[in-house]
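Morning F.,

Quick status update on the modeling queue. The single chain you submitted on Monday has been processed. Sequence for confirmation:
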Amino acid sequence: MFKTTRMTKLSMVLAAAAGLAACNDLTPPPPKVSAPIAAEPPRPSELPPPAPVATAPTPPTTEPSKAETTVAKAEEDDGDDDKIAPAEALAGARKRLGDGDGEGALRLAKVAVLRTPKRSSAWNVLGRAQLVLGNRKEAIASFEKAVELNPQSSYARNNLGLALIYDKRFEEAVDSLEQAVELEPVEGYMWNNLGMAYEQLDRLEDARDAYDKAVAMDSDRAGASLTRLKGVKSVVRTAKADLPVGTDTPATDGSEKGGPSVIR
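Structure tokens below.
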């Protein structure tokens, strides 16, 4: 009994000691962590510039085609021939001829011939410009080249015949003009030109026949020639060799009626 009581006291002492030790071994609470202080926002002057916004490239402006601008350019700048395309040079030369500008037509026609030396129409227009300026020999050479390149061109043959009339080479003129009307029998001005060549050779019956055909096609010039030849049995061969060059469209005023006509 003594031992039991002693053991009980010992147990109680040990339990009390253990409780005291537990009280002394408490872990201190963790330190309180405060939220970080936000940095002061930068002033507006310190803000970096905004990144550039990507935009679609601006499409290039569509420029007028050369075909739309070259003739106008040639009218404004006679020295810029290297930028003129052959077709536009040819069109420009024809326009200049229509405007009565032989020098401008000659310049542009030369460009067309230089760029397209095998184009019959270029040589034909060059010959027209040369004839307008009174360069008959050069015009004949140009028309002959046009015929060589295109033997079926009634226009080149008509113009060659006309130039030969002005050069008083009437037999050759008749030959060229007869071929022209054979190729293009419905063109009154060609028959009129042939009548002029016949008349210079005193072939008056042939001349009247050619004028008759031209009159049937409403040629005022041929009508004037027929009226003039009524009752005439002979003409002075050189009477009309120096007439002014005709225009593309038969003249309607009395001053040029009966004259030859150069075309295209």
